[in-house]
Design a protein that fits this description.
The chain has 125 residues and is α/β, with parallel strands linked by helices. It has a single domain, classed as 5'-nuclease (Rossmann fold). Helices cover 38% and strands 22% of the residues. It contains 5 helices and 6 strands. The longest helix is centred in the first third of the chain and has 14 residues.
Length: 125
Amino acid sequence: MRVLIVDGANVVGSRPTGWWRDRAGAAARLHDAIAAAQLDRDVVVLVLEGAAKRGKPVGQQGTVQTVHAPGSGDDTIVEQVRAHATDGAEVVVVTADRGLRERVAAAGGTCVGPSWLLTRTAHPG
């Protein structure tokens, strides 16, 4: 099983597209871009936090599962890594957050930067 976990806030925030004026809209656009992309993963988990949670409800759409962080998005991402890695999955997290990258490695996952995902999607920002 190959799992990709997307740090929604970090990916959206990686480019100055005006996302801060419409966090929910930016989250919805990111979700749609991920859903339309060929990412060669069995499961893609999009973690949303704060105002971005209004952009996409919790649930599954195709291979994309949207998860809302009840507090820290980083904590939710690490929980997702642990859950999937415990099941024997290969887990990759999309984030540029250095502190989160260390936590992901300790939990059994690896990381790639936002550009890895953005070059594979038609994400307009």
